[in-house]
Design goal:
Heat Shock Protein 90; five-stranded mixed β-sheet; 60% helix; 5 strands
């Protein structure tokens, strides 16, 4: 089976061709580096041709090119020599360090350095003249110099590649953070939109169904009044939310986050919508003010629980209980459930998910489901929502 050799790089072909032409021109002009050697005439063209061929594989097979190039350079010392041969050998040494393996890049500079020292000491001991040091210097220029230059270039390229890789990784992490931030913000906006508007829309749906199904002018009039009230309040909530999302809306005043002080108005609105609600707020009136995130989460949990009760609860009393402990605020909303006698609004289940997310973001616990242990007259069927929101004592009273 034939083995396909790698195709030489275009630059390597140009270097080999130009070096060979220059070497032939120098030889034809009689310009030799070591005239008077034992092999004169055309013998100098053989190492020249071999080194030119090795230039073709300086990238694809750098270590092989260096080994054969060293043999060709040793053979060139027995001929009259050629400056082009020396230049091609230095380029092969340089390419072996730059394009070779990491082990070769570490080994070649050390080897050429030791060879340079050995040649210098050897010729100095042989000739016993200071001029012998020049031979060692030339050896270093031809071998050790290109090797160290290759190390510098290779290190620079590796540092550049590492910096490029770090930049790409940083950009990737920044994009991941941006996507996560956008996702989290969308989830927050979805919770706010659901909590702000769902209560009003549920009341509108229930009372409009009642108005259409009951042939009673007085009942229809009361239902239409409730529908109008919830429509106006829902529209105001939507405008406030849009004002937060749009900087060019003209609403420069930030919308105040709801607090537990508004629970009375929230319960009153639920009663207006036809829900029988009892509020038991066991918090001390003079107690320290809760952190804003805790108050917002508690308000939204009560609001969503009342919305769910309006949509799904059976006739009966809905109780809202709040109790402030030293390190937590507990919220419990119970409502009878079963087959409601009146119309009911459809539900998507997003409300329970939103309440759970709000609680978990604060490190609290959340439970929602049937509570058979509760005392009720409605066949023992009670739906209970229970949330515990941690309160750091260090944060209490931070905002007066």
């Amino acid at each position: 089976m034939a083995v396909s050799l790698p195709r030489p790089h275009r630059v390597d072909v140009s270097i080999a061709a130009l070096s060979l032409v220059c070497g032939v021109v120098l030889w034809s002009l009689g310009l030799h580096t070591s005239p008077g050697r034992m092999l004169d005439g055309t013998w100098a063209l053989i190492p020249l041709a071999v080194l030119a061929c090795l230039e073709l594989v300086r990238r694809t097979a750098p270590q092989t090119a260096l080994a054969l190039g060293t043999l060709a350079m040793v053979a060139d010392q027995f001929t009259e020599g050629n400056l082009a041969s020396i230049m091609m050998f230095t380029d092969i040494v340089y390419a072996a360090v730059v394009y070779g393996t990491p082990a070769a890049a570490r080994r070649i500079p050390l080897t050429t350095g030791l060879v340079t020292v050995a040649v210098t000491i050897g010729f100095l001991a042989w000739f016993q003249k200071p001029e012998a040091i020049l031979i060692g210097v030339l050896t270093g220029v031809v071998s050790f110099g290109p090797a160290t230059t290759g190390v510098l270039v290779r290190n620079h390229r590796e540092a550049t590649e590492a910096a490029k890789l770090r930049a790409e990784q940083t950009a990737l992490l920044a994009e991941m953070d941006r996507v996560q931030a956008v996702t989290a913000e969308r989830a927050r906006m979805a919770r706010e939109l659901h909590d702000m508007v769902a209560n009003h829309l549920s009341a509108i749906a229930i009372h409009s169904t009642a108005a259409l199904s009951l042939d009673n002018p007085e009942t229809s009039k009361d239902a239409l009044a409730v529908i109008r009230e919830n429509s106006v309040e829902g529209l105001a909530e939507m405008r406030r939310l849009i004002g937060i999302l749009r900087s060019d809306s003209g609403d420069l005043e930030p919308a105040a986050a709801p607090t537990l002080d508004g629970l009375g108005a929230l319960v009153a609105g639920a009663r207006t919508n036809g829900l029988d609600v009892a509020l038991d707020d066991a918090r001390a009136p003079e107690g320290p003010k809760l952190p804003a995130p805790v108050e917002l989460a508690a308000y939204r949990i009560v609001q969503e629980s009342l919305t769910n009760a309006l949509k799904h609860a059976a006739p009966g009393l809905v109780t809202v209980s709040l109790a402030q402990e030293p390190r937590a605020l507990t919220i419990r909303v119970t409502s009878p459930y079963g087959d409601p006698s009146g119309p009911r609004a459809p539900g998507s289940g997003a409300g329970v998910v939103g309440m759970r997310e709000r609680t978990e973001l604060l490190g609290g616990t959340f439970e929602a489901g049937p509570d058979t242990s509760a005392d009720t007259d409605h066949d023992g069927k009670v739906w209970s929502v229970f949330a515990t929101l941690p309160v750091d004592p260090a944060d209490e009273g931070a905002k007066e």
